[in-house]
Amino acid sequence: MTPSVGLVPTEQEHRKAETMAIDESTTREPNTSAPTEAPAVTGERADLLETLAKHRHFLRFTTRDLTDEQAGLRTTASELCLGGLVKHVTAVERGWADFIVEGPSAMGDFTAMTEADWARRADEFRMLPGDTLAGVLADYAEAARRTDELVADLPDLGATQPLPKAPWFQADTEWSARRVLMHVIAETAQHAGHADIIRESLDGAKSMG
């Protein structure tokens, strides 16, 4: 028997239920760490932004109730710390947002980087003197806000840019804005997993379970 229209959940209801499930499984974050509400979009753009927002949330959530000192601690054999991970993901998202608009010039030529350049890049993964967790989270929220607005306003997600020169990119390759966003989502999710392990090693706290 075909169900009545009123009994079939709409796409909006599915998304609302998914959001509620996340909220129920985690604690509400401080205002300084949460980005402003994303611009209203639909379809593919909404799917991409909602997925990215979910993984951003899980990354930020690993820093809940921590001091600045704790955010900079290495709790595993890895050199990574929670504050440094958020700094790195912020730089990654901001850099790729610039790439969507400006092309490879926004990221530079990675094959020409000096030792000093690599040292500055390594600082993305550390809490440096003067860094605070609140400041790091606020910077991440600002980067997220800009990305969300960019995705909402882009004329075409299929528009491409040539990738910058880098040992890890195939030469003469182009990425669309869509591909870039998928890459940012994947990297954010990967580092959210790293952060979950670091936090559990710090004090036993888990994002879920």
How are the secondary structure elements laid out?
Blueprint: H1 11-25, H2 43-61, H3 68-71, H4 82-102, H5 115-122, H6 133-153, E1 160-162, E2 174-176, H7 177-203
Antiparallel strand pairs: 1-2
Written overview of the protein:
The chain has helices at 11-25, 43-61, 68-71, 82-102, 115-122, 133-153, 177-203, and strands spanning 160-162, 174-176. It is mainly α and 209 residues long. It has a single domain, classed as Four Helix Bundle (Hemerythrin (Met), subunit A). Helix 2 (43-61) packs antiparallel against helix 6 (133-153) and helix 4 packs parallel to helix 6 (133-153). The longest helix is centred in the C-terminal third of the chain and has 27 residues, at 177-203. It is globular. The termini are far apart. Mean pLDDT is 86; it is low at 1-33.
How many discrete structural domains? 1
Percent helix: 55-70%
Please tally the helical runs, counting DSSP H or I stretches of 4 or more residues: 7
- The CATH superfamily is known as dinb family like domain
Q: How is the CATH topology named?
A: Four Helix Bundle (Hemerythrin (Met), subunit A)
| Distance between the first and last residues' Cα | 39 Å
Q: Under the CATH scheme, which class?
A: Mainly Alpha
Coarse shape:
globular
| Oligomeric state of the chains in view | single chain
Strand fraction equals under 5%
Overall strand count = 2
Task: Profile the largest sheet.
Answer: 2 strands, antiparallel
What structural category arises from helix and sheet content? Answer: mainly alpha
Numbering strands along the chain, what is their spatial order in the largest sheet? 1-2
Low-confidence residue ranges: 1-33
